[in-house]
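ARCHIVE RECORD
Type: protein–small molecule complex
Small molecule: iron/sulfur cluster
Source of inputs: curated submission
Record status: active
Notes field left blank by submitter.
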Amino acid sequence: MKTVPLSIEEWQKERIKEEEIMPFLKEGGDFIKEDLIRKAVNKDYKPDKKRLEEILAKALAIETLSLEELSYLMSLKDPQSWARMEEAALAIKRRVYNNRIVTFAPLYLGNFCVNSCLYCGFRKENSQIERKILSRAEIKQESEVLAGEIGHKRLIVVYGEHPQTDLSYIKESIETIYKVKVKTKNGWGQVRRVNVNAPPLNLEELRELKKVGLGTYQVFQETYHHATYKRVHPTGTIKHNYLWRLYTMHRAFKAGIDDVGIGVLFGLYDWRFEVMALLLHARELEKEFGIGPHTVSFPRLEPALNTPFASGSSWQLSDEDFRKVVILIRLSIPYTGMIITAREPKRIREESLKWGITQTDASSRIGIGSYKQGVMRQEEKKQQFILGDERSLDELVGDLADKGIITSFCTAGYRCGRTGKRIMELLRSGQEGIFCKLNAILTFREWIDDFASSSTYQKALLLLEKEREEVRCRYGQYLPLLEEYYRRISRGERDLFF
Ligand code: SF4
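STRUCTURE (tokenized, with ligand):
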């Protein structure tokens, strides 16, 4: 029997499944308890050095903090306490993820959307945006540039919420990306991990999504404050439903996806409230499923074409408060990966390296189809927002190497089964950091041989010598295999990992 295609209105009506929200509610309510958060935000504490050190010791032991502990840290005003917190944040990052920054690129596949989020350039009413959805051939071309010319191994693919980019499109696009394999100078390039930033899916769709081998499944709540959420996501849209979005990760875990990313769009509401809510979300997932978020993202509201709300919010986050946000997330959810993107200007991205960031992007183009077109300038008509840092991957790698930081292209974790509860154990015990170091060395060598400019190459080789020496001194048991893999990669073999 021939299926009659649904109209956009009919499709929208069928998206939200109340029966996939209700079982998660406790006493009829959700886990974002605004009265508790409000009290914690407003509480005054007498500064107490011993209390500060006790809380930092807990964070350094990679234990998730309580709301009360976060509230204490947030209440501190003196620069010395914040300097001490910054120091602890970096120590935690080094303990959990070692001395590396993972890199990735965003790939926007379509900008049609049925929603009307006030802050977004892609909202359906914005007639000034040029709308496009990439075909399978265009996805292949974009991936060939990313994997074969720039050298990315990890992507985050981004979709609007629309019947044309529904689950079947998402699955097909991921499969297309994974099939791309490009000959490079000394080996071959391939995307090895596709993380997905997509609208909330239902249980059945999430089970289907898992089958195509996604990396992290990201859905940001944008704001956890109920009234603000309803206001910026107008009535009559799918996104207006707070609970459908809030319980996406519960559905993902039930569907067998154990690698999820949460986040807030800072600038919609009070940052103190949002940081506390992020912690409550992480604690809820830990309590229900034994696994917290693999990543936390904290984008700030950025200007977008014909979107006055994005420039006029009264909750815009200052640079100083942004620093506090990043440090507090690192301390309170110490095991999590933390992503800063090219939304932020270079200066903030460089400073954030001291606050415990673990992942960042480079050579980013967020216009639809911009990689293949070689578009170097930003095209606001095709973008959701405007980027703050347009450095190439080669420049970023060189800049990080100048600071003694190795760029990692590692995607080994999920391919070796280091996900879910297993990764939580490894992160909390600090063991994952060893794999991070070893795989960073191997993938960095792959990348420089294929893609680095001569000046970046020279810096990178010096850094690799230093890193291998550290393995020799501190993790001697891994040295023979590391050196064997390293030699083989230098001769053109690819994708060897721990
Ligand atoms: S934020 Fe996402 S859901 Fe909202 S209008 Fe933009 S693309 Fe659509």
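CURATOR ANNOTATION: The chain is about 45% helix and 10% strand.
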